[in-house]
Amino acid sequence: MEPNFWLQRWENNEIGFHASDTNPLLKNYFPALAVPEGSRVFVPLCGKTLDIAWLLTQNYRVAGAELSELAIEQLFQGLGIQPQITQVGTLKHYAAPQIDIFVGDIFDLSAEVLGPIDAIYDRAALVALPATLRSQYTAHLRTLTHNAPQLLVCYEYDQNLASGPPFSIVAEEVHQHYDGYYEVQNLLRAEVPGGFRGQFPAQESVWVLTRV
């Protein structure tokens, strides 16, 4: 999927994927990672998610990566925070106390630039990427974070009925990407109310990945 697809979605405000409240799965299952307050949580492909505000209120530090600068401008406006903006290679770094967001291609982000990460919250990254990029993404994420523990949220549905995104990520694929690097545990698999865009059944699954 070309970067322009997502940039255009933000430009046109076609952001039905942006939730208007904190994801309840984050509130319910993030404690399963058992990371202490003050830990630094990485949110890949973060957009302007309100989940970041919740993590900050829980006394976590947040790092994120996002392709759309417009999304990050709106994120900081929503937080009521004025960031300091600097250029780091091909990326822009939006920084403020307790929060660092890197704007640009996540594959241009290095572990050295990102800095130490204690946990990952992936609600919108893996499911946003086509199959051709998912193996590259998960390998890059492991390198970026040195296999930091992860809370992963996925959708499951009949991919023949819709092209995505969000794409369907079944259990076998989660294990394919992460077995050998993590202990992979499924905590929830539940029907999505109204199904996929109100069209057909879908499930949401929650995974906890802990470093082996």
Describe this structure in words.
The protein is globular. The model has no long low-confidence stretch (mean pLDDT 92). 28% of the residues lie in helices and 27% in strands. By secondary structure, it is of the alpha/beta class. The protein has a single domain (3-13, 26-211), classed as Rossmann fold (3-Layer(aba) Sandwich). The two termini are 32 Å apart. It has helices spanning 3-11, 24-29, 51-57, 69-79, 111-114, 131-145, 171-178; strands spanning 40-44, 61-66, 84-88, 91-96, 99-103, 119-122, 150-156, 182-191, 203-211. The chain has a nine-stranded mixed β-sheet, with helices on both faces. α6 (131-145) links the parallel β6 and β7.
Query: The CATH topology is what?
Result: Rossmann fold
Unreliable stretches, pLDDT < 50, 5 or more residues? none
Topology order in helix (H) and strand (E) letters? HHEHEHEEEHEHEHEE
- Summing up helix and strand content along with how strands pair, one would put the structural category as alpha/beta
How many β strands by DSSP?
A: 9
**In what order do the strands lie side by side in the largest sheet?**
3-4-5-2-1-6-7-9-8
State the shape.
Answer: globular
Main sheet: strands, sense, barrel? 9 strands, mixed
What's the structural domain tally? 1
Supply the CATH superfamily name: Vaccinia Virus protein VP39
Query: What is the CATH first-level class name?
Result: Alpha Beta
CATH architecture: 3-Layer(aba) Sandwich
N-end to C-end Cα span:
32 Å
Q: Estimate the helix proportion, in percent.
A: 25-40%
What's the alpha carbon Rg, rounded to whole Å? 16 Å
